[in-house]
Design a protein that fits this description.
about 450 residues; mainly alpha
Length: about 450
């Protein structure tokens, strides 16, 4: 169902959009957690480390795909806010063509380079084969990654954050079943977890596509609208590629950091994997806030209402602060118990390190909230290129940790790498927002005169 975010209470609209999106993200993390739980408990610590060692390179590639799709949806949200339905449909059509091209090119490239990348990251010898078996299947599934993220982003740009959640719930249930079938029954090892993830995402993507085709008359494209349009392609790339690069540049820092963790040993990799999985679950509300602000910003800039953008930023920042305090309480009261979802109680040293990791990270969740809220708002306002610089600041911080701090201070330096990255990003993003607001005010003033 479409939702116009240019009218009504910003706080109510943000909550109404973000809560369904949050449930979707939680279910997405849920079936990712199921992979980790089943792998950790049924295949052992080395298998858990094998999957964990691919996390940063997975984010590097898949994060780029997700960022591109989210960027493609920004002009669609802006045209929806401006009530330009014909232009909206042209952007949707060209979004489809570009996604097909990107999916094919990226899949071929990364599958060929997969093992050399793992070797360059100093993946431990005892887990590199498992890491390759897992990540190469994930990369072969990049076309379905584009399918789901493209269709979900288009639905969100129209204000519909609920429908993708429904299909993610279905995918999560399917993923659990396929995990158990592939790993336990068929004995496919870590490759089985990857197969389950790809198939589940394919089902979610197809369901979104069919739903869009049947339910949204605004998306009924004519033959003329399906044509390749150079202007639309230019604007889509101008939004999508910088947003994808922002994810990837951020991930390069994670790759550097992961390489440093790999050098400490597979036990450290397992601890970061377990702590990272719990952290990703706890960070879902911030991801939901970010995606909400991209749509909110896009629609309201399209409507020419900059004051509503400011009000939305204040409302979402307050939500981010409240949840950050709640997250600290969750981790300090129940963090160690939650980590037992991924690790056996007998792995005492790994468990202690994982708890140190998550306990350190959660203290800096409010800076992370600002990263997501402000960065995605800037992108929704049409300034995606600035996000690349924010990603560069994060990369710089994680690179500093990986190259300099971890060799001297070991695992404790790993625990502070993410907080350092979030603070670095905020140092850039907060002044950038005031710059963008001033530019947009000038543009809107000229359009009225």
């Amino acid at each position: 169902m479409e939702k116009d975010m240019t009218k009504g209470s910003p706080m109510r609209l943000i909550l109404g959009f973000a809560v369904p999106l949050l449930f979707g993200l939680l279910f997405q993390q849920f079936y990712s957690m199921v992979d980790t739980i089943i792998v950790g408990h049924y295949l052992g610590v080395d298998a858990l480390a094998a999957v964990g060692a691919t996390g940063s390179v997975n984010f590097l590639i898949v994060g780029f795909c997700m960022g591109v799709c989210n960027g493609f949806a920004i002009p669609i949200a802006q045209e929806y806010g401006a009530k330009h339905e014909e232009h909206l449909r042209k952007y949707v059509a060209n979004c489809v063509w570009l996604s097909l091209i990107f999916a094919v090119v990226i899949t071929v490239a990364v599958v060929i380079l997969c093992r050399p990348i793992l070797q360059a990251m100093k993946t431990p010898v005892n887990i590199i084969d498992g890491s390759y078996s897992y990540i190469v299947i994930i990369f072969l599934g990049i076309p379905v990654t584009f399918l789901y993220n493209m269709t979900a982003a288009i639905l969100r740009s129209l204000g519909d954050s609920k429908t993708p959640v429904v299909f993610l719930v279905m995918a999560a249930i399917l993923n659990i079943f396929l995990d158990l079938l592939c790993i336990i029954v068929f004995g496919m090892g870590v490759a089985g977890a990857a197969v389950a993830t790809v198939v589940s995402q394919a089902v979610a993507g197809m369901c979104c596509l069919i739903y869009m085709y049947k339910k949204y008359t605004i998306l009924k494209l004519s033959k003329e609208e399906w044509r390749w349009d150079r202007d639309c392609v230019g604007k889509l790339c101008n939004m999508g590629i910088p947003m994808g690069l922002q994810y990837s540049i951020t991930a390069i820092g994670s790759v550097i950091l992961q390489s440093a963790v790999n050098g400490i040993g597979s036990a450290a990799v397992a601890a970061v994997t377990a702590g990272g999985k719990l952290s990703m679950l706890l960070m879902c509300p911030f991801d939901a806030m970010g995606s909400t602000m991209a749509t909110y910003g896009g629609q309201n800039v399209g409507a020419g209402d900059l004051e509503r953008v400011n009000k939305g930023l204040k409302s979402c920042t307050l939500l981010g602060l409240i949840y950050s305090v709640i997250a600290v309480g969750i981790v300090y009261l129940a963090g160690r118990s939650l980590l037992l979802l991924f690790l056996d109680a007998g792995e005492e040293a790994i468990l202690n390190n994982a708890y140190t990791f998550i306990r350190t990270n959660v203290l800096f969740y409010f800076p992370l909230a600002l990263v997501n809220i402000v960065r995605f708002l800037i992108q929704g306002m049409g300034f995606s290129k600035l996000a690349v610089f924010a990603g560069a600041f994060e990369m710089l911080a994680r690179g500093l940790a990986g190259f300099v701090l971890v060799p001297f201070f070991g695992f404790r330096a790993v625990c502070f790498a993410n907080p350092l990255a979030w603070i670095f990003a905020d140092i850039f993003l907060i002044p950038a927002f005031f710059y963008v607001r001033r530019i947009m005010a000038g543009i809107l003033e000229k359009s009225k005169s």
